[in-house]
Amino acid sequence: MTLLSLFNVPDRLSWWFIAIITLIFTAGAFYGADYLKAYKQHRKELGLHVFWYLLTFASMILLTLTQHAVAFLVTWELMALGSFFLIIFESWNSDVIKAGINFFIQSHISVVFLTIGFLMMYNKTGSFLWTDWSAYQGPCGLPFAFVCCGFAIKAGFVPFHTWLPVAHPAAPAHISGVMSGVIIKIGIYGLLRSVMIFNVDLVLAGKIILAVAAISGLYGVMMAIVQHNLKRLLAYHSIENIGIIGMGIGLGCIAKGLGMQEIASLAFGGALLHTLNHALFKSTLFFTAGNVYQATHTLNVEHLGGLLKRLPLTGFFFLVAAVAICGLPPMNGFVSEIMIYLGLFDYLGQASILSQVGAVGAILALVMIGGLAILCFTKAFGVVFLGEARTTLPEHKEFGALRIVPLAILSLVMLSVGVYPEFYVQQINNIMPLFGCPEIALNGTIASIGRVSAIVIAVTALLWLVRRLATRGKSLETGPTWGCGYTVASPKLQYTATSFVKTYSKLFNGVLKSGFLEKAANAYVRFTSKFAFLQNGRLQSYILYGIIFIVTTIVLTLVIC
Amino acid sequence: MLSFALIILASLFFSGLIVRTKSICAGRKGPGIFQPLKDVRRLFKKGTVYSTSTTFVFRIAPLIYAASVLMACACIPFGGKPGLIHFEGDFVFFAYVLSLGKFFCIIAALDAASSFEGMGASREALYSMLAEPAFFLIMGSISLISGHTSFVDIFANLNSYDDAFHIGATIVMAVILLIIAMVESSRLPIDDPKTHLELTMIHEVMILDNSGFDLGLILSTGYMKFAMYGALIANLFLAGPLAMSIGIFFLVQAVCAIAIGITESFMARFRMNHNPEFIFSVAAAALVLVFSIMQFS
User: Fold this and answer.
1) Which of A36, A71, A165, A302 could make a disulfide contact with A235, Cβ separation 3.0–4.6 Å?
2) pTM of the complete model beyond 0.90
């Protein structure tokens, strides 16, 4: 068996992910080239950084090509290693190293899960090839659960998300963009593949995925709202969007398991399209956040304000991406969300009464996510880019073309998904045979969404024209903001990010302060510290442990076999 | 087309009717029914003052707000006749395009760098987020009854049921929709449009810095939004030949306006911290409705 034979010709699903990965990595490369100019004095690190960037890119492409479990694990490991070194670029900063180690450990826990799941399947089938696994008819619920946990860590589903909000703020902006845009999407890719390969009860698996995803979505956005570090806020939003994608996958599994093929198409299609959409707007948001950071040297939103006047283009593209991430027409996020909505409403009409309750819950989760995302991004955009600066910020001009052009291209692609979704859904339709699902009708809802999105823009333009004509010859003055009688206005009087979300954080205090993971972690630490006496530092004891271990292993093997 | 024209027509008198009801209840002579329109006309003729703190966001927001409500109006059918825009899932578009308008209103308020406007923006963002589930639950329940997912199919198939349960459910839906309309349009008991204290305002305080054409556009869009929700409620009851359903349409609109007027005359505004509870209970009522429809229909 040659090395090359481990990698296949890509199928349609691989192509979809290769396209997304290449687009975002290319944009990240151009953006990063300019971003890294600030680190000129670190020549050695820069060279290595480029190497790891390319290695991560290559390993991700290879990941989508292999159908062999061992080859998959090896390339997965390469990707994890590459992204670890990408994150710790600022290795002279101890916080960065800490975040990097956190990521490193968690991504290896993910590898452990994957390895266990893959080995279990090897035991059952005697083969590492996924094609053999999908032909296997016996039960494989347990390996499927292990593999799903492994992929869930990479994707950042709650409760496996804890590395995300730490790693993103530590990495340089172009790496955060690439990481949130595509590296976590490899988890989604793995999840989609496992759904195809493993012979499991799809309805049950789908219900679990849907529930976990809905919780991830809600938890992600709820936590995002109260963050004051712009990049951490965006990182929590990645958890939210992974939740939306997961809801699509979960619903798709349920519908496929029940034989509702049209709903499965809509749900899987929505998930796939949202994968592209999230890659587009999240990388745009991280790149613009990088611009904000390099212009002001802070990411704390409470210190910012009025940046739209200093960085007009950066601010504009942040706004475009913010509208898109809230799922508002005429941008791309709306298309994928409405596909999942339609799937859920169709499912609501056909499901049994208990499943209907679940469907209502899922719809409510999606609605709440949408509403909370608006609260979050009006805060983020409003506090960072609008109003007046809250502290004295250094003077900075808008960045050059190398940074702005990638943002513009990503935004144009976003708009094109919004106004001409037929093209993208057609590509997704080509993937549908892999799921055994029919094609999504292009001429119905999908085409209509494109047209109405264009009309929204047209009506706004028309109203602008009307205003131009109606106010021609009228006076147009500028003056200070109306202070409601108070005349000594100062930027300090502005509403802050904290006050903007004050009522919200009081209302949802229970969720925000629950710290369910911290409690579990503390309980675990308390339990394990009872065994601390074993670590007594005497060499003799450690040798004894080794002997006990070896003896037990041998005895157990003899007893069991 | 018909429904769009009727909504525009109804929006001309809806707000005036509320004002008139209030003045009659208060025993005042009060302004005429077309006074709101005259105010808007006066504003359209005026010049504009922009704050020096603002950016293009502030200037484009009123346009997007108006465009979003116009698009939402275009989605509303008239009984079995589709609106200008209709496709499977158009009610999702309806809700989301309204959110687009709200998004820009909120950031425009933050653009003025005023503490009061930020206050209004924060409240608007929170309350509309809380009210959205109630709307989707109502739409979910009528889509369950009718088995369809577009406005026109839903309403065309809704009126074929005439047993007591469905009539009762329809009335509950109408009431919940009216309350949603009051929340979304920032009326009592959530927000008092006539209050004189900026600290207690929601919608009014967000537009403190708008003037001239922009303010006129925002006000007229608000009137249109009212009539749009009125039309949505009217759709629950439309029946019979065209002339009769047009009659029902205007009757429902008038009843809604008078109901809002009477509520505002005899009720005080809630304390701000009671608003979330109120909106939650509306959503809870909608949830009960959905579950009872699952059970009984």
Assistant:
1) A165
2) yes
